[in-house]
Write a structure and sequence with these properties.
Layout (H helix, E strand, L loop, with lengths): L2 H11 L4 H10 L5 H9 L7 H13 L5 H11 L3 H14 L5 H10 L3 H14 L5 H7 L5 H13 L6 H5 L7 H11 L5 H10 L5 H18 L1
Helix pairs in contact: 1-2, 2-4, 3-4, 4-6, 5-6, 6-8, 7-8, 8-10, 9-10, 10-12, 12-14, 13-14
Length: 224
């Protein structure tokens, strides 16, 4: 992207119209990370929450050395729980293993379920098996959405030992939980996983059936 176009984006980011600022952030998709991050920082503390939220997300996509400390600061200290959740999610996109401990702290210490949800999802994105104990504990949460996140993340970190712990959700009334289970089991190659996937392949919900079928095919290919 030419310097002229980048300057146009920079000008729009200073517009009094929040829609202009949002559109400017969207247009940064075509801008190299080293040019995009200084522009993103212009609206990182915007007065309009959707603008801030998109800016935080963008830091997870446009990755430079600056992004990690900024996101950690937001995760740990921002007053708005939505921004803390966005920062947790963006750290998952960064896939920087340094984020493991801050995400664990956020999961245990933040009092908002959305932040805890984002932290659990991002721990899965990091694919660090140290998260297994935390995620197994999250299966007992009263928040269904946290259970969904934990199941998915256990699959992402390929926590084979956790297969038995998540199989109890095969009969969950929540079809999204059954779908997350079917997807996760595709990364946990055990006899019981295969048996559960065959059961889920007959599920009443089409998305659960499709997820189970895809996971069965995945496990079958891995054995050949």
């Amino acid at each position: 992207m030419t310097k002229l176009n980048i300057q146009e984006i920079a000008t729009k980011l200073e517009s009094p119209n929040s829609k202009d600022r949002l559109l400017a952030l969207v247009s940064l998709r075509e801008v190299a990370a080293e040019d995009a991050v200084p522009l993103i920082k212009k609206v990182l503390y915007d007065e309009i929450l959707p603008v801030r939220s998109m800016a935080v997300f963008a830091l997870g996509v446009k990755q430079t050395a600056e992004c990690y400390p900024i996101l950690i600061e937001l995760l740990q200290n921002d007053a708005d729980y939505g921004i803390r959740a966005d920062a947790a999610g963006a750290l998952g996109y960064l896939k920087d293993i340094r984020a493991f401990e801050p995400l664990v702290r956020a999961f245990y210490e933040d009092d908002n379920w959305l932040v805890r949800f984002s932290a659990a999802v991002s721990l899965g994105n990091l694919e660090d098996k140290r998260a297994e104990e935390l995620l197994i504990g999250a299966l007992d949460s009263d928040e269904v959405i946290l259970q969904q996140a934990a199941i998915a993340a256990l699959g992402e970190i390929k926590a084979i030992d956790a297969a038995e712990s998540i199989l109890r959700f095969a009969n969950s009334e929540d079809w999204l939980i059954r779908q997350r289970l079917a997807e996760a089991l595709g990364n946990l190659n055990t006899e019981k996983s295969i048996s559960a996937l065959k059961f889920l392949a007959k599920d009443s919900h089409p998305q659960v059936k499709d997820a189970a079928r895809i996971s069965l095919e995945k496990l079958s290919k891995s054995q050949n």
